[in-house]
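Appendix C reproduces, verbatim, an entry submitted by the partner laboratory led by Prof. M.T., so that reviewers can inspect both the input and the predicted structure.
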Amino acid sequence: MRTITGKELDRKILKAQGKTWDGVALPRITVQDLKPDAIQMFKDKAVARGRLTEDEISVPDDILMENLYLIDEDDCLVRAAMLAFYKNPVHNMMLLYLNMISMKKG
Protein backbone atom coordinates (compact mmCIF):
# COMPACT_ATOMS: atom_id res chain seq x y z
CA MET A 1 0.00 0.00 0.00
CA ARG A 2 1.27 3.46 -0.93
CA THR A 3 1.42 6.28 1.61
CA ILE A 4 -0.18 9.54 0.48
CA THR A 5 1.60 12.79 1.31
CA GLY A 6 -0.11 15.79 2.87
CA LYS A 7 0.15 17.74 -0.37
CA GLU A 8 -1.45 14.92 -2.34
CA LEU A 9 -4.22 14.70 0.22
CA ASP A 10 -4.82 18.46 0.04
CA ARG A 11 -5.01 18.29 -3.76
CA LYS A 12 -7.46 15.38 -3.68
CA ILE A 13 -9.67 17.06 -1.09
CA LEU A 14 -9.77 20.30 -3.10
CA LYS A 15 -10.62 18.38 -6.26
CA ALA A 16 -13.36 16.44 -4.48
CA GLN A 17 -14.83 19.71 -3.17
CA GLY A 18 -14.69 21.28 -6.61
CA LYS A 19 -12.30 23.99 -5.42
CA THR A 20 -9.04 25.34 -6.71
CA TRP A 21 -6.01 26.50 -4.77
CA ASP A 22 -6.96 30.19 -5.00
CA GLY A 23 -10.51 29.45 -3.79
CA VAL A 24 -9.45 28.14 -0.37
CA ALA A 25 -10.96 30.11 2.51
CA LEU A 26 -8.83 32.24 4.83
CA PRO A 27 -11.00 32.61 7.94
CA ARG A 28 -8.52 34.86 9.76
CA ILE A 29 -8.52 37.59 7.09
CA THR A 30 -11.48 39.98 6.87
CA VAL A 31 -12.46 42.63 4.36
CA GLN A 32 -11.26 45.23 6.87
CA ASP A 33 -7.76 43.71 6.59
CA LEU A 34 -7.65 44.44 2.87
CA LYS A 35 -5.86 47.50 1.54
CA PRO A 36 -8.39 50.24 0.66
CA ASP A 37 -6.00 51.77 -1.91
CA ALA A 38 -5.75 48.46 -3.76
CA ILE A 39 -9.53 48.07 -3.80
CA GLN A 40 -9.97 51.63 -5.08
CA MET A 41 -7.37 51.12 -7.79
CA PHE A 42 -9.20 47.95 -8.86
CA LYS A 43 -12.50 49.87 -9.00
CA ASP A 44 -10.97 52.73 -11.02
CA LYS A 45 -9.35 50.41 -13.54
CA ALA A 46 -12.40 48.18 -13.83
CA VAL A 47 -14.59 51.17 -14.74
CA ALA A 48 -11.97 52.72 -17.04
CA ARG A 49 -11.68 49.47 -18.97
CA GLY A 50 -15.41 48.88 -19.11
CA ARG A 51 -15.33 45.73 -16.97
CA LEU A 52 -17.66 47.15 -14.31
CA THR A 53 -20.07 50.08 -14.15
CA GLU A 54 -20.11 52.91 -11.62
CA ASP A 55 -23.21 51.31 -10.08
CA GLU A 56 -21.41 48.00 -9.67
CA ILE A 57 -18.47 49.56 -7.82
CA SER A 58 -20.60 51.91 -5.71
CA VAL A 59 -21.21 49.23 -3.11
CA PRO A 60 -19.49 48.51 0.19
CA ASP A 61 -16.25 46.56 -0.13
CA ASP A 62 -17.71 43.40 1.44
CA ILE A 63 -20.47 43.36 -1.20
CA LEU A 64 -17.91 43.96 -3.95
CA MET A 65 -15.87 40.99 -2.70
CA GLU A 66 -19.01 38.82 -2.76
CA ASN A 67 -19.85 40.01 -6.27
CA LEU A 68 -16.32 39.11 -7.38
CA TYR A 69 -16.70 35.65 -5.81
CA LEU A 70 -13.89 36.39 -3.37
CA ILE A 71 -16.00 35.42 -0.36
CA ASP A 72 -17.01 31.79 0.03
CA GLU A 73 -20.27 30.26 1.25
CA ASP A 74 -19.09 30.59 4.88
CA ASP A 75 -18.44 34.35 4.46
CA CYS A 76 -14.65 33.90 4.46
CA LEU A 77 -12.32 35.63 2.07
CA VAL A 78 -10.49 33.29 -0.28
CA ARG A 79 -6.80 33.23 -1.18
CA ALA A 80 -7.40 35.15 -4.41
CA ALA A 81 -8.68 38.13 -2.38
CA MET A 82 -5.59 38.05 -0.18
CA LEU A 83 -3.28 37.95 -3.18
CA ALA A 84 -5.05 40.85 -4.88
CA PHE A 85 -5.95 43.16 -2.00
CA TYR A 86 -4.20 42.20 1.26
CA LYS A 87 -2.22 44.91 3.07
CA ASN A 88 0.88 42.76 3.41
CA PRO A 89 0.79 39.91 0.88
CA VAL A 90 4.59 39.58 0.99
CA HIS A 91 4.22 38.20 4.51
CA ASN A 92 2.30 35.21 3.18
CA MET A 93 3.54 35.17 -0.42
CA MET A 94 6.50 32.84 0.05
CA LEU A 95 4.42 30.22 1.84
CA LEU A 96 1.67 30.48 -0.79
CA TYR A 97 4.19 30.35 -3.64
CA LEU A 98 5.85 27.25 -2.26
CA ASN A 99 2.44 25.66 -1.81
CA MET A 100 1.53 26.37 -5.44
CA ILE A 101 4.79 24.89 -6.71
CA SER A 102 4.37 21.74 -4.67
CA MET A 103 0.78 21.32 -5.93
CA LYS A 104 1.90 21.63 -9.56
CA LYS A 105 4.71 19.10 -9.13
CA GLY A 106 2.61 16.42 -7.50
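The CA atoms of residues 72 and 78 lie 7 Å apart. Additional entries are available on request from the coordinating office.
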